Amino acid sequence: MLTYVLAVLAACANAAASVLQRWASIGLPAQDSLSLRLIKGLLRRPVWFAGVLGVTAGFVLQAAALSVGELSVVEPILVFELPLTLILAARVFHAPLHRREWLSVGGMTLGLAVMLFSLAPSGGDPRAADWIVWSTGIGVNLAVVVAAVLWGRTGKVAPRAELGGRRAACLGAAAGCQFGLTAALMKGAVSESPHGIAAVCTSWQLYAMIAAGITAMFLLQSAMHAGRLLAAQPGLTLSDPLISVLWGVLAFHEQVRDGLWLLPALAGAAAVTVCVALLARSPLPGTEDRSAAPSRPGESASRGC
Questions:
Q1: CA distances for 202 relative to 134, 182, 188, 267, angstroms
Q2: Using H for helix, E for strand and C for coil, what is the string for 183-211?
Q3: HSE, side-chain direction, 13 A CA sphere, residue 273
Q4: Cα(81)–Cα(276) distance, rounded to whole angstroms?
Q5: How far apart are CA 223 and CA 236, in angstroms?
Q6: 61-91 pLDDT per residue, tens
């Protein structure tokens, strides 16, 4: 039960962080996407630091959940980040939720519950993965991230008249894949905790996790800047648990139920995917361009994106 509670709290922290970071990016020049100039601009906005605190809290809660539970249990629960983000964004950007959105949230919740109950992940040990498994997995994971970034670079930053944009969607998916890798490395690091804090601090996974996390944060900022919140959020929300589950099952040998149990599991996964697609097409982010951007000295607080 503690694993589920910690994972849900991590999803809440991540949802708050997504809304705060999108709010902070409103009004920054479009050409700053995938540039360090974007970070320079965000550093001038206090609300961005609140978003970073949210990401940090989510990171700590996720690590705590992974220390007591399996990767393929914790990460799918983080899918709750999407409906939580929508609910919070509706409040921040003054867009009330309608029946379509509430039904999608309910469908995601039910689908995820069915999927986790059907698969019942258990066991697994990251310490069983050798260097070949780690290097192959990291190489494939990074290749997927690079491919998503390159595809996203060919898309334009979404103008205010559009709901989304390929760049935001691709960068969101790239960030999610990178966060999935970060979670796998985090699980590898915390798996050394039975041997003491010194074993964790001297594990190579800890420092690889830090590097992967910094890269994921940079991609996340670019995704939030490239388009409206729910253009980037679906790819971010789905790719993270997908990559993490693949790491858990293929690399760490976590066990899941097979046979007829796969039918309700697939049905639950399909329900989650459909509901995510419905939320991604929600018209609610349409008020986002009219929200106030965080003000700087000499800058109007009513400036839009």
A1: 17, 17, 12, 42
A2: HHHHHHHHCCHHHCHHHHHCCHHHHHHHH
A3: 9
A4: 11
A5: 9
A6: 988 898 888 888 887 888 778 778 878 877 8
Q: How far apart are CA 163 and CA 30, in angstroms?
A: 15
Report the distance separating Cα 84 and Cα 101, nearest Å: 11
With a cut of 60, say whether residue 106 has pLDDT above it.
yes
Tens digits of residue pLDDT in 195-221: 888 988 999 999 999 999 999 988 988
Q: Which residue has the higher pLDDT, 157 or 183?
A: 183
* Longest Cα separation, the chain: 64
Return the residue matching tokens 């046979």.
259
On whether the CB atoms of residues 168 and 184 are closer than 8 A, the answer is: no
Task: Centre a 10 Å sphere on the Cβ of residue 104 and count the other Cβ atoms it contains.
Answer: 25
**Which of 152, 172, 150, 147 lies closest to 280 in space, CA to CA?**
172
Q: Tell me, what's the pLDDT at 286?
A: 44
Do residues 175 and 144 touch, judged by C-beta distance below 8 A? no
135-147: pLDDT as tens digits? 999 999 999 999 9
The mean predicted confidence, pLDDT, of the chain is 81
From CA 210, how far away is CA 46, in angstroms rounded? 24
Phi, psi of 122 (to 5 degrees): -160, 165
Residue with the two structure tokens 């995820």: 112
**Local structure of 107: helix, strand or coil:** helix
Q: Which helix (H) or strand (E) holds 92?
A: helix 81-92
Both structure tokens of 262: 């796969």
Residue 162: exposure state from Cβ atoms within 10 A (0-12, 13-18, ≥19):
middle
Nearest to 26 by CA among 298, 288, 299, 297: 288
What is the spatial distance between Cα 186 and Cα 247, in angstroms, rounded to a whole number?
12
Length of the chain: 305
